[in-house]
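Retro notes (design track)

What went well: tokenization of the new backbones is finally stable.
What didn't: we kept losing track of which sequence belonged to which structure.
Fix going forward: every design gets posted as structure first, then sequence, in one message. First example under the new rule, 426 residues:
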């Protein structure tokens, strides 16, 4: 048997949280497996059209209609998520709202309600923890789970995956796609090939049979430029890439070529990193089309900063180092970091530093395909009880009450109620 697929259902880069699951590990005697093991069972659970699906669940009259969630229809608003009805019109995330509206005149545009999406994401995560403490969230709507040891308690990895998918549908009225494989890379691809509502199991001995026919664009990091390069070389599938020598790929793409060769050969020994091991909180987004507009990029980056800051406050954390990630059109990726005088969870303080890092590395001549923002050097609020936040002589003054007011209002009435002006242009 090769790999199995199922799309029938009987009858959610916010990255890692900072919570300790050690008690649960000891209780169930489920300890992380060696990354070298070839018998690992990894699940990748990916929610289908997460934001839009939640909005449809909250308002059933939206079902079957083209719906997007994102920024304002005026100015430089951008689509954050589109349901499958909207995707039929060629609408996708990161597309300008005005362009999306031109493609579909009767498109329903809703503002992002991050507190609601985060609440549902936590409910989904609670379902994961019924079966394993080894959960690595990638964003609100997807996560890796290592269920290798869980098979002793709950049955096969395939059965566990089915139980999780069914519980999400039955309890939350949402649809998830699930991939089951011996590695994170293969599990993530498996969860994507039969969307929506897909379920694909790839056995260890059939990894190459599964990967080889797929287009090289399925490999993490293989963007438009890389795919176009491969096509000029006559390489269109993962199998064709796999048959190239690692040395040859290195000569053309450097270390990135070696990375692609390893993935094409199904080599991925990365462990599932649990919440308790996370050292940072971050968000990033990949644009379907490269962006050069500074205002649009700033608006999107501020939106990411607001999400990260909100998550810091929600989990009573403060961070000292701001990290910016930019991936350019040629796939060159840079990260830039700068530390604050004192750890903070204040949106404006984080944004001032994030914007400074961005402006130092932005150029209209260098289109950007991915942008991300994160905070590291995390501390619990209690650990900072004796520290007073010092003022930077050159820092713009901020009022922490603004964040508290915004959190309270948005938690009660939705994230669209109160936002900073620039992010409303996203």
């Amino acid at each position: 048997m090769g790999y199995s697929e199922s799309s029938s259902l009987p009858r959610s880069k916010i990255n890692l949280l900072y919570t300790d699951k050690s008690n649960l590990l000891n209780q169930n005697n489920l300890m992380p497996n060696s990354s070298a093991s070839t018998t690992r069972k990894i699940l990748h659970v990916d929610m289908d059209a997460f934001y839009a699906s939640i909005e449809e669940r909250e308002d059933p009259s939206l079902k079957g209609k083209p719906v997007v969630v994102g920024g304002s229809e005026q100015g430089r608003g951008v689509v954050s998520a589109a349901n499958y009805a909207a995707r039929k019109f060629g609408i996708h995330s990161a597309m300008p709202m005005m362009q999306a509206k031109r493609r579909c005149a009767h498109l329903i545009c809703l503002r992002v309600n991050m507190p609601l999406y985060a609440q549902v994401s936590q409910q989904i995560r609670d379902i994961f923890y019924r079966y394993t403490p080894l959960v690595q969230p990638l964003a609100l709507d997807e996560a890796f789970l290592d269920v290798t040891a869980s098979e002793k308690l709950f049955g096969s990895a395939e059965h566990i995956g089915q139980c999780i998918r069914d519980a999400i549908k039955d309890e939350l009225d949402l649809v998830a796609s699930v991939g089951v494989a011996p590695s994170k890379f293969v599990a993530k691809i498996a969860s994507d090939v039969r969307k929506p509502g897909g379920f694909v199991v790839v056995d260890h001995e059939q990894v190459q049979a599964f990967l080889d026919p797929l287009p090289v664009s399925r490999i993490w990091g293989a963007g438009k430029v890389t795919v176009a390069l491969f096509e000029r070389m006559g390489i269109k599938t993962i199998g064709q890439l796999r048959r190239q020598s690692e040395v040859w790929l290195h000569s053309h793409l450097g270390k990135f070529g070696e990375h692609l060769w390893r993935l094409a050969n199904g080599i991925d020994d990365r462990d599932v990193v649990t919440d308790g091991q996370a050292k940072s909180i971050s968000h990033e987004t990949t644009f379907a089309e490269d962006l050069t507009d500074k205002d649009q990029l700033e608006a999107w980056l501020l939106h990411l900063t607001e999400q990260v800051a909100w998550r810091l406050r929600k989990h009573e954390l403060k961070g000292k180092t701001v990290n910016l990630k930019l991936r350019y059109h040629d796939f060159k990726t840079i990260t830039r970091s700068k530390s604050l005088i004192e750890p903070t969870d204040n949106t404006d303080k984080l944004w001032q530093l994030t914007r400074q890092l961005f402006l130092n590395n932005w150029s209209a001549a260098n289109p950007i395909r991915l942008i991300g923002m994160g905070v590291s050097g995390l501390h619990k609020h209690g650990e900072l009880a004796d520290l007073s936040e010092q003022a930077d002589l050159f820092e713009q003054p901020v009022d922490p009450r603004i964040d508290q007011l915004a959190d309270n209002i948005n938690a009660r009435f939705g994230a669209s109620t109160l936002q900073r002006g620039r992010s409303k242009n996203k």
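Added context from the reviewer: The first strand starts at residue 3 and ends at 6.
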